[in-house]
Amino acid sequence: MAPGLFAAALLATAATPAAPKLYLGADLSFTNEMEDCGAVFREGGKVVDPFTLMKAHGGNIMRVRIWNAPGWTKYSTYQDVLKTIRRAHAAGLEVLLDFHYSDDWADGEKQIAPAAWAKLSTDDQVKALHDYTREILDRLAAEGQLPAFVQVGNETNPEMLGGTKDGRINWERNARLINAGVAAVREAAKAHAHPMKVMLHIAQPENVIGWFDDATAAGVMDYDIIGISYYSKWSKYNLAALGKVIAAAHKRYGADVWVVETAYPFTNDYGDTTPNLLGSESALPEYPVTREGQARYMEDLTKLVVANGGNGVVYWAPDRVSTGCRTRWGVGSDWENAAWFDIKKHEALPVMRFMEMTRK
Q1: Distance of alpha carbon 44 from alpha carbon 348, whole angstroms
Q2: What is residue 279's three-state secondary structure?
Q3: Which CATH number fits domain 21-359: 3.40.50.2300, 3.20.20.80, 1.20.140.160, 3.40.50.970?
Q4: What pTM was estimated for this model as a whole?
Q5: SS3 of residue 299 by DSSP
Q6: Which parts of the chain have pLDDT scores under 70?
Q7: 171-206 pLDDT tens trace
Q8: Which of 25, 52, 112, 352 minimizes the number of CB atoms within 10 Å of its CB?
Q9: Which of these, 315, 321, 336, lies nearest to 230 by C-alpha position?
């Protein structure tokens, strides 16, 4: 190659941005509770730790939720989350901390303000959200357990701290709340010299572009990742349409895009009397409700995310197996047929192989 062409080739290579790191893993917020309820996870008949098992299969990201003051449970509190983060870091996993900003589930149907904040003015709620976010991150920093990623809100389709799916969003208020959380993350990252990326999270791909257009117009622009929940049961979109949204969001907003929640059943069987949430009635026709169907769904979904410019896939609640513990929904689990472990012996399933893509 002539010297001039060699120099041009070097310049072209330098100008090409490196592909973003691929993050594959799962939300293990239930693991501590399941183990306290007697669950024993296995692979090849041997007892395994779900965190180290995920790492062994190529996983590199663990997500965990945090509630403000959940008086109805001792899980997803600060102390429980700290335990989970310690386990993840010890296994060599990076951590995504998911602030629900609620004492209970916040999701695409509802955003329930913590009881301590419910009657505050907007100004005081903005301050409370900021200060709480900063306090939690400062406490984690003191323990040497800061996450690499932070979700400012969980499935924030409705207005934060009190919105419902059918309610109209007051974007002046909503933007102030979101930006307060983002500011707290940025401040903590600077104060502790620990980079943390911010994710904003919307349920179901058909809601993504409209929400982020409104957010942008309201001044919500300081984030790094768009997180999308995708469950075929609750979405109007098939996988091809999901791919188009990922590509459009990545191009339109310049952010990374992850499918930060998804799951798929491997059987219609059950291990308890609590009805399963996912089953054949909500499955995609090309993926049978079998062990291999579940595994192929996750492999194809991951390939689709990457092909459309995304760089993250996080499975929801693979650890939510059936035990003898009682919850508000009944005894056992309504998710055991969509976990990563079989129903009878909690033996690891082939679905985990999608995480091997981090090695390619």
Answers
A1: 8
A2: coil
A3: 3.20.20.80
A4: 0.94
A5: helix
A6: 1-17
A7: 999 999 999 999 999 999 999 999 999 999 999 999
A8: 52
A9: 315
CA–CA distance from 121 to each of 113, 117, 127, 133, 354 (Å)? 12, 9, 10, 18, 46
Average pLDDT, the chain: 94
How far is residue 41's CA from residue 68's CA, in Å, rounded to a whole number?
29
Which residues are annotated as catalytic? 155, 261
Pairing of strands 23-27, 61-66: parallel
User: How far apart, in whole angstroms, are the C-alpha atoms of residue 261 and residue 230?
Assistant: 6
In this structure, are residues 68 and 77 in contact, taking their beta carbons and an 8 Å threshold? no
What pLDDT sits at residue 328? 86
Please say whether the beta carbons of 73 and 100 come within 8 A.
no
Tens digit of each residue's pLDDT (9 = 90 or more) over 99-157:
999 999 999 999 999 999 999 999 999 999 999 999 999 999 999 999 999 999 999 99
Written as six digits, the tokens of 68 are 């403000």
Considering all CA atoms of the chain, what is the largest pairwise distance in Å, rounded to the nearest integer? 74
- CA dist list (Å): 182 to 60, 137, 185, 225, 254: 24, 12, 5, 12, 17
Q: How far is CA 304 from CA 164, 230, 266, 318, in A?
A: 31, 13, 20, 21
Distant-in-sequence, close-in-space partners of 131: CB < 8 Å, separation ≥ 6: 184
Tell me whether strands 46-47 and 42-43 are parallel, antiparallel or unpaired: antiparallel
Which is nearest to 125 in space by CA: 101, 146, 104?
Answer: 101
